[in-house]
Amino acid sequence: MLHIISLGLFDKKDISVKGLEICKKCDFLYLEKYTNFFDSNAKELEEFIGKKIIEIKRENLENKSLELIKKAKNSDIGIFIPGDCFSATTHISLLLEARKMGVELNVVHGSSVLTAIGETGLSLYNFGKITTIPFDNKNVKSPIEVLKNNRKLGMHTLFLLDVKENRLMSINGGLKYLLENKIDENTLIVGCCGLGSEKKEIRAGKIKDLIDYEFKIYPQCFIIPGKLHFTEEEALEMFGLENS
């Protein structure tokens, strides 16, 4: 059987009880960290769980996933994925391939930034399409188009920030991209850092006021709110909206 096990939002302690129970019975455990930030490495996870874990690279899931799925025909294979396993479209291919090959599949869901942003006080029902700002973004316009379309509908826009090997894009880097693409410096943004951790930080303000602010902890993302309900405005006041 192939077990896709979500690790949760921030570190090893975010794995669910169900996830722990499942991984205890697995014959082989694998960890991928290329699609998302995760504060615990394979060794720390090994010590926490008490079982050997093999860290795998992007190519193992994208180009060699069939090898893992075939192995799951006769063994219990567990693949750890930070956040919730299907927040990134990369892992949907595992689900599809397993079903095509007749391999039994078990999915353990976990906490994700897609719901954790509710801590800002912005209603999840009022979010439009999500977009990601990549590192190499000189000629990339899709995040701006997503923002424009969401604004027409009065919806909030969540900007995820690129993760590439050991590089993590910061909120500051994302805001510079917006300014380079003619987004008004007086635009309200809500920066979110380390959601799920004890050191999390949420800060609301104009781009011009936060462009040089030091957001210290990762992972980071930010939101450009759309039309605000009065309860959302009240919530954002806790994070600095009254100063924007």
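The above is record 1. Record 2 follows with the same two-line structure.
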Amino acid sequence: MLKAILFDLDGTLLPSDQDEFTAKYFEVLAKHHARRGNDPKRIVDCVWKGTVAMLKNKGEDTNENVFWRVFEQEFGPSKAEIKPIFDEFYANGFDEIKSLCGFTEKANMAVKAAKAHGVPVVLATNPIFPIEAQAKRAEWAGVNPDDFAFITSYENSRYCKPRPEYYIDIANEFGVNPEECLMIGNDTSDDMTAAKIGMQVFLITDCLINKPDLDISVFPHGDAGELVEFLKALKL
């Protein structure tokens, strides 16, 4: 029996090209900091190093604390001094990236179909951003962040995809077993890793990422429309 349904965001609910998104993100972030007197190249370098540290996090602390320890060490100013500039960016500058993302009404249809089953629905997007950025990207997808019982972010997570512990922590958040969860995503490495700990999975193929060139027939899969029908037909 399913007791929780998890959705990836980028490439799943929010159609996007990962490389284009990342490049534009750093371009806009660098310009934002340059206007406030910070060296844009140093900012990008330090954010990259902090992000790598989060991706390598083995659970010793939250991703937020891991990121800021590395950033402060590399950049100099304290978190208290520099974080307000990042907060301002996510509030006012982050939306410049929205134009790179696609849109499908089926994203909201899929979330609503999942919620109709009466189980917690989770936005299981890689927790390398603060909650404000995660929620804003959900809104870009036409999805209400309040529809999710939990949104993984760098504040509340100790691991990143594709570590299996990331998925275990989500299951533990709701006191359920991994086998009682369904993970929906577009990346055979990051998202389908959930299957290795027993989660049920659905691979959405509209923006498929399959770097290891896996045989995707081993996973239930389909496009956004097929995902909606799959969720509607679930028997919990």
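The mean pLDDT is 97.
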